Amino acid sequence: VGRDQDTSLRGWRREAGRAG
């Protein structure tokens, strides 16, 4: 489950950074 959460967090951070 840790791996799934890590990927979700990474994707969220990446999207937030892209949107600015």
Task: Give structural notes.
Residues 1-20 are annotated as: Disordered. The structure is a single chain. With 20 residues, the chain is mainly α. The chain is 90% helix and 0% strand. The protein contains 1 helix and no strands. The protein has one helix at 2-19. The model has no long low-confidence stretch (mean pLDDT 71).
Q: Care to give the gist of this entry?
A:
This protein has 20 residues and is mostly helical.
Q: Total strand count, please? A: 0
Q: How is the main sheet built?
A: none
Helix content: over 70%
Assign an overall shape: rod-shaped
- Give the count of helical stretches: 1
Mean pLDDT: 71
Order of helices and strands: H
Q: What is the terminal separation in angstroms?
A: 28 Å
Radius of gyration: 9 Å
Question: Which structural class fits the helix and strand makeup?
Answer: mainly alpha
- The proportion of residues in beta strands is under 5%
Unreliable runs: none
Region (Disordered): 1-20
